[in-house]
């Protein structure tokens, strides 16, 4: 019987074809997808603010979880055409005052703070709250711009005065108030350490806020230099359940929980500067006290319960975080929506370009009202204020060069080794030569330092200043004869931006989707 090679050859051909197909098919698909990707800005951006330009940094790892919430502004009208003639009343007529039935603003200040800070706050971010809506807590009863300010330390029990030298600052201030020397004797008033008193305000203000305005869905605690985008805050809180114990803000490292054998836990708290938010359920849990069979309260009130810690801890926001941790309410970190940086110090990059701005810390008084008025003209019905939008407020890089200006050293790196950089111009050329660089800073005169940066930052004015001399090292022997005093050295500051490069980067990030991030304690600057 004759043997036929045709079936064998047919099988071999099919196998060879299969192998080629398995190799070529995915390769062809890859090139087709790549072509489509580069041809479409929408695909390239994907609505989340990440293009392919490398110089502003990769996305964080792991990529945060984004929530596709559709939110609507409660302001009406949503935005206004604002000029220098637009009054505060006209701006506040757009404010949804009814929302304070559910959301309680609580502003913390101190008598020793510069008055310009609270005045700027009350003329801008807090301007639209009525006296009944806004609670202002301090270390002295007074009236500021017609607003009642409540002394939150006045009702603390006598135990706070015992063996507590820090609290003597409060007693001294009260005594000077009674004898008429407070603010009259400027030296004695300045000697009162208001900052050291500040930590004692946090727990009492949570208790008092609940006592005065019980049962609100949300309690928003903030400070005089906190700028709150209330439209973004209202949108954010509308996506959450106040019946869930929630404690939210910008996370900072706190105390270590050593109560569990062989398993220490590093805890976190919400930095008070960018503000923090407590849900109704969180406040209820924090203030809960055990009750005996006859109805008697077995536990002391919250503030008294933690007096020993308050004596030792530096900061009240840290104590708030620890007390909440002890009732199983850990902080939910919502950086960068709660931002510890000031507006002029925000480093813009891929990390959060399409994420909402809710709060900013360390806002300068001169920026407060201007930012507030600008915000009213930029508000949109379906989209909160994003970092993409905030960029437009100061527009770093316009102009492209600024003398006596410090745009920082965030995400810095140096010129390549061997490069001769001895001026502002050669520093700029080093930036241009690096695809990672979007701005540069020349520290001139005696410093002669070139700083290149991967992220865009506005910065602040900065005049020439002396360079600090190094201190003698500990244990170092002093010379037998005093050395001649060295000549004082100086540094000046000049900043530049790669405007075309920045504009190209911005143009590729359309933010077709808002990135509402989930909670995280690792997603920080």
UniProtKB/TrEMBL annotation:
Its EC number is 2.4.1.122. Residues 461-490 are annotated as: Disordered. It is a single-pass type II membrane protein. GO terms for cellular component: membrane. Keywords: Glycosyltransferase, Membrane, Nucleotide-binding, Signal-anchor, Transferase, Transmembrane, Transmembrane helix. Pathway: Protein modification; protein glycosylation. InterPro entries: C1GALT1/C1GALT1_chp1, Fringe-like_glycosylTrfase. Pfam families: Fringe (PF02434). Residues 207-286 form the Fringe-like glycosyltransferase domain. It is found in: Membrane. Belongs to the glycosyltransferase 31 family. Beta3-Gal-T subfamily. This is N-acetylgalactosaminide beta-1,3-galactosyltransferase. It comes from Phialemonium atrogriseum.
